[in-house]
Amino acid sequence: MTFLRPIAFGTFLFLSAVCSAAEKLNVVLIMADDVGYECFSSYGSKEFSTPRLDALAAKGMRFDHCHSTPLCTPSRVNLMTGKSNVFNYVDFGVFPKGEPTFANHFKAQGYETAVAGKWQLLTAQGGISPAEAGFDRHCVWNIPGTERSRYWKPSLMHDGKVINHGEDDYGSTIIADYLIDFIKANKDKPFLAYYPMNLPHNPFHPTPRSKNRKSKNGKQNFIDMVTYMDHCVGRIEDTLVELGLRENTLLIFTADNGTNSSLIIDFFGTQRKGGKGYTHDHGTKVPLIVSLPGSIKAGQVNKDLICFSDLFPTIVEAANLPAKKISQGDGWSFWPQCLGKEGRKREWIYGYYFPRPYKSQFDTMYSHWEVAWARNKRYKLYRDGRFFDVINDVREEKALGEKAELSATRKDLQAALDEYPKKGRKIDYERVNGVRKAAATKKKKHKKK
């Protein structure tokens, strides 16, 4: 039996559907930290081994054209709100207060909710706590109070209490344990488990399963961290199987942005720096694997364009919940594609990136003026007019001129850009310009000296 009750969140009103657990699909959404699609053997890597994720892809659907933003916080805001950053991004480390999340949505429908992993959405300048974001339970790092390491001897916040763990404790193991305990405790209830992993972000240290626990080789340690990340995902799936929940649990794996740019990675035969922080393909193209045995046919590869805004409405439709109220800049569901149907396909996706708007430096990888672009699978047009063939020019080193044969494509992408605001809606440009002006004055004075 199902009935609806209203639940308020700020200025938003959700209809809460209360029904038996058997009628509801569980959702586990996993997002790795700083690892591009080139680091997964299911995507063709020969340098990395990810057997558990390969198996998930083999049992479900792998997407070839999923795009995030190039950096941690923007991708988290994009994913959790289902909305383009141009409408709600505030600053690095800050979640835009008042924006409803997918956890708010699921909680309003009677779900038990938990988040375990890296938070990075609350600072002294603003943001929200896991509870405000709709999570009943949390075990998180990178939230005020957790000042120590994320890996060995970690500092983690467990349900509002900071625990400083011992020297032999590994943060990623503790986080996975916490989520497993949450799943076990709620095996008879519908649940949403969000797992924004802390792996395999730098610093690159050995893992509990590394052969050399004293290794100083950053590249080898990163490879080991990717392997341990894969192991942690496998532990989550094993728990679902053990509890008899696997066929009633939608399992999604993705990553927040490309690989750390300090690393040289094998890009399918070409050695290249990781793309994190850059708006070109290997900064934004991320893995996406979706698995639900019995519903999603095994061994599928989907080549539709997907953006991070699409994940919120997709998990809502998969769980057969009331749809998220759609506004400009929101994503749309690709759940029909997961079920082997045609679905609604994107001809292009829009990107917006202004990572640290109030920093005094605007000429570094993570601190620069805002960038916006529209792209299809091959061509990409920036708002400033730069136009690239991203298939044949992955690094975007040679802009295309005014070629007649591409005029229609360029016109279409310009029309896509024109659908969005030219400036970020929640950016304080007066403050941005003030910081920029002060920095320029300081630099000028320094040169005179």
Q: What does the model show?
A:
The chain folds into 2 domains: 26-346, Alkaline Phosphatase, subunit A; 350-448, no CATH class. Helix content is 26%, strand content 23%. With 449 residues, the protein is an alpha/beta fold. The strands form 5 sheets. A 10-stranded mixed sheet has the order 10-9-8-5-11-3-12-15-4-16, with helices on both faces. It has 11 helices and 20 strands. Helix 5 (171-185) packs parallel to helix 6 (218-242). The protein has helices at residues 51-59, 72-81, 85-88, 102-108, 171-185, 218-242, 281-284, 311-318, 335-338, 407-418, 429-448; strands at 3-9, 12-18, 26-32, 61-67, 112-118, 122-123, 126-127, 137-141, 155-158, 161-164, 191-196, 249-255, 264-267, 270-273, 285-291, 300-307, 349-353, 371-375, 379-382, 387-389. The protein is globular.
